[in-house]
Design goal:
The radius of gyration is 20 Å and the shape is globular. β10 (120-122) and β11 form a beta hairpin. The two termini are 36 Å apart. The longest helix is centred in the last third of the chain and has 9 residues, at 282-290. With 361 residues, the chain is an all-beta fold. 2% of the residues lie in helices and 51% in strands. It has one helix at residues 282-290; strands at 7-17, 24-29, 39-43, 57-62, 65-71, 81-88, 94-96, 100-101, 109-117, 120-122, 128-130, 135-142, 148-156, 165-177, 184-186, 189-195, 197-201, 216-218, 220-223, 232-238, 241-247, 253-260, 265-272, 278-279, 296-301, 304-312, 315-320, 325-331, 343-351. Strands 9, 12, 13, 14, 15, 16, 17, 18 and 19 form a nine-stranded mixed β-sheet that branches. Strands 4, 5, 6, 7 and 8 form a five-stranded antiparallel β-sheet that branches. A five-stranded mixed β-sheet has the order 24-28-27-26-25. It comes from Saponaria officinalis (Common soapwort). InterPro entries: At3g26010-like. This is F-box associated domain-containing protein.
């Protein structure tokens, strides 16, 4: 059984992107979940540490920890040389990870996954117990085109000896990588999003004694509903169940829930057409009448899959999928509006006790 960290009542959706060194934190108070007044915005705290680069980009999150990337190459679209840092935005503690120099033919990032169990470890019998050892796993998947059954990747964890190891993610289904879509964790597994399926694997396996050619990770492939090719998709995990939301530019939203992990059976939880939304604010009525509904989707409310937040111009809009009601939650400051084109949501949850990290000297 996996132990859980005790959480406080506050959660955050961090809005960031691959091209920004800044981000916006959207704070939630989980009670009551439907009140838009329990939401506020703040800037991502600037991490000022000795030896830490200034222009950092958020590429992952787990609990209250953020995974930052710093590009060492002059070409901002060339990802062959970069540095990664695990940071706690609350305590300002940072941990520098070993550098990874990619082959010359690898110039673009496909996906980066980040998962950690900061206060727990696993023994030889796969039992989890309290420990002060920080245990994190990072996987880097280079960009690859076309449908493949084997994805080359690089893995870093205590079970790889603390160094980057080249691995192969082997999928029983041929699939095409869904690039720069956040990798989702369910239980002890990371799930790589692809067109038509999710490929899940356990990253906490001891590969420290094997050679690179020996490391072939067999993935569980979960077929997804037929919506990943043309839709905008994001995922959420609630009570160890995976939820997927897809939307069209017309304002139609569908939310699916994975009922059976083994068979890949999904059920449709919500299906709302653009004209079915009920705006509860005059500003929303005017916006809907003038333009297609919604710009960027922020993601699920951290406490429920029945509430999502979207960005409509400079307003963050609460959308209750159960009642089809919309209302304005808050208005963004002007300085934050430029964060959102091409940005991605990362969910952060604050434990009662912040996760400790070694301080970067």
């Amino acid at each position: 059984m996996r132990l859980r960290v005790k959480m406080s009542g506050d959660s955050v959706n961090l809005i960031s992107g691959w091209g920004w060194s800044k981000g916006l934190m959207i704070h939630f108070n989980n009670n009551p979940i439907y009140s838009p007044k329990n939401l506020s915005c703040s800037r991502l705290p600037r991490l000022v540490n000795k030896g830490l680069p200034r222009n950092l980009t958020v590429v992952g999150a787990c609990n209250d920890l953020l995974l930052y990337m710093y590009q060492r190459h002059e070409d901002k679209f060339d990802y062959r040389k970069f540095e990664l840092y695990i940071c706690n935005a609350q305590t300002k503690q940072c941990l520098a990870l070993p550098s990874l120099d990619l082959p010359s033919m690898t110039r673009n990032i496909g996906n980066i996954g980040f998962m950690c169990d900061p206060c727990y470890s696993r023994d030889a019998s796969s039992n989890w117990s309290l420990d002060e050892t920080f245990c994190a796993c990072i996987i880097f998947i280079p960009y690859i085109t076309g449908e493949v059954s084997k994805l080359p990747a690089y893995l870093l964890s205590p079970y790889t000896g603390g160094v980057w190891r080249e691995v192969i993610l082997s999928s029983p289904l041929r699939c095409e990588l869904l690039c720069k879509c956040p990798i989702t964790s369910i239980g002890r597994k990371l799930h790589v999003p692809c067109y038509g399926c999710l490929n899940g694997f356990d990253p906490f396996v001891d590969w420290s004694n094997g050679t690179s050619k020996d490391i072939v990770i067999q993935c569980d492939s979960i077929p997804t509903p037929p919506c990943l090719v043309t839709m905008i998709v994001f995922f959420g995990v609630f009570h160890e169940q995976l939820y997927m939301c897809d939307r069209e530019d017309s304002g139609r939203y569908r939310v699916w829930v994975l009922k059976d992990y083994v068979t890949g059976e999904w059920s449709l939880r919500h299906n709302i057409m653009g004209q079915d939304w009920i705006p509860r604010d005059l500003h929303l009525v005017k916006l809907i009448n003038r333009r297609p509904l919604f710009g960027n989707t922020i993601g699920f409310h951290p406490a429920t899959p029945d509430v999502i937040y979207v960005l409509c111009k400079r307003w963050i809009v609460l959308c209750n999928l159960a009642t089809k009601e919309m209302e304005i939650a808050t208005k963004l400051p002007k300085s934050s509006y430029d964060l959102f084109p091409g940005s991605y949501p990362f969910q952060i949850t604050f434990p009662v006790w912040p996760t400790p990290l070694p301080i970067l000297a």
